[in-house]
Amino acid sequence: xxxxIQKVIYKLYYYFKRYIRQREILFYKNDACLDEGTIxxxxxKIANNREKKAIKIGSKTIxxxxxxxxxxxxxxxIGDCCYIGPNTRIWSAKKITxxxxxxxxxxxxxxxxxxxxxxxxxxxxxxxxxxxxGFQDFVDLNEKEIIIKDDxxxxxxxxxxxxxTIGKGAIIGACTLITQDVPDFAVVIGNPAKIIKYTT
Length: 200
Description:
single chain, globular, alpha/beta
């Protein structure tokens, strides 16, 4: 059984953690446009390197993952009633639009750019700049917009690369690599991704 002092310490620790979490959520509200009922969970993180309106999250959405915009560009729009799992990374230098009721599992990567320049010299300069000063103001990452439509489900460890559209109600299987558009209600798996069936 817990002693009285252990109970007091536990209670103080609980209130301290709750206070810190509330401060973090207030910080994120200053960093993004969040609708009522949006929850930034303990593992959730927003790193918006642009103006506040570059990241918009709809109502009743739960963010356990990480949203990042680059300094030279990037926009992330997430609809209502979505779920984004722990360790999922959504990084934008162009635009990523996620519809309503989209489920994104844990450890998913969604990138609308190459992360670094293709030229080796430029890539080294970009790496050094990030390590010393953060993202560059101007850099070519060959960005292309990503669209994920309503009711899609992205399985754990999936990777979605630049320039693709994932259709309404589509299901992306675990560990699948998406480099091409996925039709509405298609179920795709594998690397390269293959359609195995359609749902309704």
